[in-house]
Amino acid sequence: xxxxxxxxxxxxxxxxxxxLLEDPGVEQIVQAQSLADGFRLYRxxxxxVIIVDLAMRTGALGGLSFIRRLxxxxxxxxxxxxxxxxxxxIVSRALEVGATGYVLKDTSSDEVLKAFQRVRENRxxxxxxxxxxxxxxxxRGTTNPLRRMTVRELQTLALVAEGKPYxxxxxxxxxxxxxxxxxxxxxxAKLGVRTLPELMRIAIQHLPSATARAPxxxx
Length: 219
Hints:
Elements: E1 2-7, H1 11-20, E2 26-32, H2 35-45, E3 49-52, H3 60-73, E4 79-83, H4 88-97, E5 101-104, H5 109-120, E6 125-126, H6 128-140, H7 151-161, H8 166-173, H9 177-191, H10 196-206
Parallel strand pairs: 1-2, 1-3, 3-4, 4-5, 5-6
Helix pairs in contact: 3-4, 4-6, 7-9, 7-10, 8-9
């Protein structure tokens, strides 16, 4: 029998996962609504499979940090990412830091179950469409647009990518709210983007060290 840990901050998703996984020989389903709680439950419950969303309150980099930090403790427990993030940059980075499989929330229940069954056997799973997009992205190759950024700009970009609001970034960096806003405006201009999600995408792709950030209680 299989024990599953599901980490998602939406109660409806947690309920749906519980109903979906009732049939395929699952003995126990443990649920957490934050990454920190999920890590604590992992340490106490020792699940056989972990299902985790990347789009938590800490932002996409928070979910990647969770996977990376868990892999430092446990290189074997299968991890299935279950998320709305379809960007091939995020998919590629999730697999790079240790996810076993990756499936989107808008896919069919049959494919979700297929992904779960595959990951439960510790076999990788990635839908055909996602696999094609990741392969195409990697075949093109990329250059790092952050090479000329200042230390402050890189710090700000990493915190934006973690989903932190300007006020929290200002507190973390010990600067004013206006300074953070101005820095983000400069970053958008330098990187040729218009929105914060676009800044997040660039950070995930080109700031690999950011995926090492995690709450102290995860250690």
